Amino acid sequence: MDKPTYNTAIVRSFIHWSLLWGVVAILVGILISFQLVNPNLNLPPYFTYGRLRPLHTNAGIFGWAIGSFFALYFYMVQRLCRRPLWSDGLARFQLYLFNFTIIVAAVTLLMGFTQSKEYHELEWPVDILVVVLWVIFSINILMTIFKRKEQQMYVSLWFMGASLIGVAILYLVNSAAIPVSLFKSYSAYAGANDANVQWWYGHNAVAMVLTLPPLAIFYYFLPKSTGVAIYSHRLSIVAFWSLVFMYLWTGAHHLLWTPIPDWVQTLAMAFSIMLIAPSWGSVINGYLSMNGQWHQMRENYLVKFLILGITFYGLQTLQGPLQAVRSFSAFIHYTEWVPGHVHMGALGWVSLVLFAAFYYLAPRIYGRELYSIPLANLHFWLVLLGQLIYSVSMWIAGVQQAGMWHAIGTDGSLTYSFMESLVAMYPYYWVRALSGVIYIAGVAVFIYNLAMTARRGKPLAPAVA
Amino acid sequence: MYGSWEIKPSVFLALAAAAILVGTVVTMVLPFAWINTEADRIEGVTPYTPLELAGRDVYIREGCNNCHTQTIRPLVAEVLRYGDYSRAGEFVHDRPHLWGSRRTGPDLARIGGKYPDAWHYQHMADPTSMVPRSNMPAYAFLNAREVDPELIRRKMGVLRFPYTVEQISGLRGKTEMDAIVAYMQKLGTGMEQSVAAVVAAPAVAEENPFADDAQALREGADLYRQHCVACHGAQLQGGIGPSLNALGMGDADLFQVIFNGIVEYGMPAYASLGQERVWKMVGYIQSQQD
Fold first, then answer.
1. Any transmembrane segments, and where (chain B) (predicted)?
2. Which residues contact B164 (CB under 8 A, 6 or more apart)?
3. Which of A153, A257, A408 sits opposite B7 (nearest CB)?
């Protein structure tokens, strides 16, 4: 019993709050999906699509994803370093500041205080709160690593450390602005420069927030769930360093055919294709770790979530580079295909891995066995179905939309007016709204299962914890 | 056994930061030397006036960029639909840029001057009254809000845009609706509007090739409902645009007006529909003459 006493309470609190913000993100997402088919659901001035959509994305990224990463980083870092958290007090303060920031973010976005940059809408005072949060979080994690009791840093710690640095660099550079009043500022960059900086930030937020942290979680929780080590240490080294190096070159694939220099676009396109290799390095590492263990897909519900999660990561990192090719981008950019792509990553890859980690932690944070494995399976199938309907319907919609936009008659005239292309989207928009309802049903089952675990789960034998 | 970076966090963090910074410097820092230089300058592109800036900030506040892009790509269909492709020099005064990433609604990079002010006032307040089946939210509440001249003056100072005292005092009593319409009318006008949307075709016929074609007449009526009703009324009685009930125009002249538009009167060009569809509209309009 020389095990150090880990701080589990802070992990539990962050899980609860991130789940709450996740539910908010999905509910707002469902609302805006219905607004797209019925504009009467817009309630100006505060609840129009234009103000709610940033609330949806910010609640999803900052509330659900980053909130969950706070929880899981705190959990993993203690065990990988074999010592308690460097500062419990700072972590507790971070929890309060996190929730305060999310609430302020939601209120200010609804009031229309926005920098308008995608995934960086929060105005400068809220930006400062985000920076303070990230700094105290980073200090706590890094000090725990520096004062660790384990010599080697496991793979997950590399992904965690790199994400801490990456987010800091991206966020600070992209938030440079000149304040005019308490909630209005103007970007430090103008025009095409501003666009290039923004998408360097925007795409690498995908790297540093929606790729590295979930990979850290995957590398930790897959072996924990299966009881079998990761297939290749060397492969994880190669995949990690090439991923961190290559990602930063690709931002301009969001700006193909726009007035930024061609060479920047070409580099972005080339590196996007090359990124397939390190991305699939992790996918293959995950698959090969399952050698002789594939029967666990049937027997161990945790493995289903993790392997489907990494599979969607694999699909995402094939589809993304495809979209980064100039010719395909010319066709598909600005259409509904893109939200289909984004949500495969958000609902498939990131969320499935988070669900798995939370299930794994449930007995450890509540001291009880999971209330119901059948309910966990129901949750799995509902969110899988919701996500697939969302993505597939939007891919089909995007192809049709692009086809209508680009259709030209023999006399060189446009075949369809813009409105005809929008009206053609309405059936798909209905399907998308339905997919969100299915997804939230799955999440409701998940939360019910956790709540029942906390209240009625069988107490654990003292050995487990 | 292990690389030193695997057991020394400081070494690891330094290497990770270096890996992140290489691509950052090349693709984010270096382009500053290529963008917004003298080579990008376009003579007619001027900073926003106080009223236009106020409108731009309303556009930002309402999140219009979540559905509308402001950059036209050099692709055939895109240039036909929206006008000449965007140049870097057109955006030098834009902080932040508003290029957007999705087109739930149409691109607005060259919306300026396409429609008369009255069209925008009505469309903003009640989009479906102008564009049936549109899913744009209604922004009538902008009519009830006045702009704040003092705040705008401060903003002009921060952005170092030139302005006159008259311009600022002229803002008194202006609504946010006035502002956003002014901004709409500014968009894309800094460049010669070389609208490439004139469909190359052999010389236009002198008379309507669909003269006695009942099917074409029905299609013409449909096209009229889609593209003309908002300004000229369901009974051709007029509204934002003039009445079309007693035109006294020849087919060929009417064709020219619809095909090429009359920019100074706020009549958009419909060349991108192609000659056949314009002839069908001509046929329908002529069939409705008193």
1. 12-34
2. none
3. A153
